[in-house]
Amino acid sequence: MDNDQVKHWENYSTVDEFILLGYQEYSLLLFIAFLATYLTILLGNGLIVVVTTLDPALRTPMYFFLQNLSGLEMCYTSVTLPKMMVNLVSGDRSISLPACAIQMFFMLFLGGTECFLLAAMAYDRYLAICLPLRYMAIMSHRVRVGMVVISFAISLPMQLLQIGLIFSLPFCGSNEVDHFFCDIPQVLKLACADLYANEVAVYTENILFVVVPFVLIVASYVHIARAILRMPSGTGRQKTFSTCSSHLTVVCLFYGSAMLVYLCPQTSDFVKFAKFLSLLYTVIIPLCNPLIYTLRNREVKAAFGRLLAKKWSLKGGTGSS
């Protein structure tokens, strides 16, 4: 950092809050749309958590991971959508530095956890298809719980370090964040300090939480594809692939959008596109997850049916008594 930069930054007052520019047009219409979306996300993913918990037929490793993914999606969306809706209704788009740090931490923490959880789900499918006779012995309850715990444990210290590095920086000059939540690239643009350590941390995090899990997922599906292609029956190949299609759809949507946002150069022309992509992986994918996993999954649909039938039978029994 040279003296001219220091003198330039000293002419500005220190920032103590940010302004989330978000989406500034059609506020009422967007509020209604986001409210409906948020309630649908909570309802859809909440139902998956309930049905996979209550139905004995779904107490398998695959549905255990799906249960955790749905719970994660509800938390993930709750970090951004409520604040966005408040901003749309009130017109007050400000967010304090501590609130921004908390929001960014949970976005990174839950997002990083989801990356490893999706990798764990791919490994589960690999074991089920490539090593079916040893599947339940390897993927015991203790192992799958451990995989979920590790997914959270890996993310926690790295994100705490990342937040500490970012919010120890001085912010001065403009306080406008061209996003609907506090995201790393947009917040770092407002810092008036040498960003070398932050850039190294961001690069390391991208490798650890985006590239590494994605490579593990690709490796799992390469082995799965080989196993499917070796099957003599076309019906067997189709049935086996259908058990992976829901997870593969979510992986493509999630990683496709996240990798574009965090691995592409942050040019001025890319900012608006990045905002749309962020909306895709923070809102649209959690909204689509219940549809993807229920419309393509007979077992989940059957479990929903059993749960509804049990509920109505209990109501009928209460009414008759």
Topology of helices and strands:
Layout: H1 3-10, E1 17-20, H2 27-54, H3 61-90, E2 94-96, H4 97-130, H5 135-138, H6 141-166, E3 176-177, H7 184-188, H8 196-229, H9 234-263, H10 270-295, H11 298-320
Parallel strand pairs: 1-3
Antiparallel strand pairs: 1-2
Unreliable residue stretches: 1-9
What is the radius of gyration? 22 Å
Question: Any idea what the shape is?
Answer: globular
Order of strands across the main sheet: 2-1-3
The tally of strands reads 3
Tell me the series of helices and strands, N- to C-terminal.
HEHHEHHHEHHHHH
Terminal-residue CA separation: 80 Å
The portion of residues forming beta strands comes to under 5%
Give structural attributes:
321 residues; disordered N terminus
Question: What does this 3D model show about the protein?
Answer:
With 321 residues, the protein is an all-alpha fold. The chain is built from eleven helices and three strands, in the order H-E-H-H-E-H-H-H-E-H-H-H-H-H. It has helices at residues 3-10, 27-54, 61-90, 97-130, 135-138, 141-166, 184-188, 196-229, 234-263, 270-295, 298-320, and strands at residues 17-20, 94-96, 176-177. The chain has a three-stranded mixed β-sheet. Helix 3 (61-90) packs antiparallel against helix 4, helix 3 crosses helix 10 (270-295) and helix 6 packs antiparallel against helix 8 (196-229). It starts with a helix and ends with a helix. Mean pLDDT is 85; it is low at 1-9.
